[in-house]
Amino acid sequence: MDVADPLLDFTCYMGRLMPGGTFDSLFKDGGERSSRAPFTGSIICDTQLYWLNALIGRCFYDFLRNAWWADRVKEKLQRKLSKIHVPYFIEELQVTAISMGKEVPVIRRAGYPYLDERGFWVDLDVSYTGSFEMTIETKMNLMKLKRTDIKQIPSSSSVSSVDSRSPVTDSDEEDSAESSTDEEEEAVTNPEERESGQTSKKLLRYLNKLTQSRYFQQATEYKYIKRAMENVSNTPLQLAVKVKSLVGKLAINIPPPPSDRLWYGFRGPPRLVLYARPQVGERVVTLTHITEWIERKLEIEFQRVFVMPNMDDLIIPILRGTDVL
Question: Has the keyword Transmembrane been applied to this entry (predicted)?
Fold first, then answer.
């Protein structure tokens, strides 16, 4: 695809969302463009939903390519990641870059809409293979492993009580896994994820026991070891996280008026496939346990925010009535 040709870029994007043969009349000139005509009909959905997928895709074409919208998505992701509890020697996760991907989620099937005391509802079977990517950066502050720092580690309860604002009452506050514990995390993972999580937790417990030993604390006082720890602590750890696919049943809810929000969440854990590729400084490295831990944390965070009874929300200005003016 020649990205320098805006029309070809747009038609290739829309071609995936259209029924087969849609662009035949547009590319009948017999020239070079006809040999690169967009492939059409690549999505799988109910016939009556082609128009809806095409309409949504057209509306979000510029959204996927606009830097302003990318920054808004980045800010929202950062607010959620800031809620994740990390081991005391790992700094807060920071989103440094994102790529919105080149596709929007596809609605494969739609259920019958209905009303109840909580408002309007409709269930959608959705599929996403747009390869959304984000770069997460953090640091392993090994100097916190020294005994003087270990004594200052706050408990989980004290961390949770720092900010008691609720996303229900504060529109700028993000819902997240801010009060999660290891026991709760195990409850939302499948056996394979639980096995990986147990391995990571064993490593952390072993590391905690090792760092509290007298020999380790004495070793950290040696000049060369201390300098090496400082160098590692000042080296950023980057992870390129890529969402390969997401498939599940998405529930859409708009509460009765007055309400300016659209709520969405999955009915049961969706099939989520994501990968994290670590890089320390300028070198791509293999840090299996840390990578697995961050991947698992991201999956848990996703479930706690987007899997019912938890739901995320979007503000829809046209639902505000005259207040929007």
Answer: yes
pTM of the full structure: 0.70
Is residue 142 within 8 Å of residue 233, measured between CB atoms? yes
Task: Please state, in angstroms and rounded to a whole number, the distance separating the CA atoms of residues 142 and 207.
Answer: 11
Q: What is the DSSP letter of 42?
A: -
Distance CA(303)–CA(253), nearest Å, equals 18
pLDDT, tens digit (0-9, with 9 covering 90-100), for 75-131: 999 988 888 777 777 778 899 999 999 899 999 999 999 999 999 999 999 999 988
Angle between helices 67-81 and 288-306 (to 10 degrees): 100
Contact (CB, 8 A) for 54 and 106: no
Q: What CA–CA distance (Å, rounded) separates 230 from 235?
A: 9
Residue 290 CB-density burial (10 A; 0-12 exposed, 13-18 middle, 19+ buried)? buried
Degrees to nearest 5, angle at CA 62 with 124 and 21:
65
Q: Give the separation between CA 97 and CA 90, rounded to whole angstroms.
A: 20
Unique residue bearing structure tokens 């309007």: 120
Alpha-carbon distance of 109 to 125, in angstroms, equals 5
Could you tell me the two tokens for 152?
Answer: 């200052």
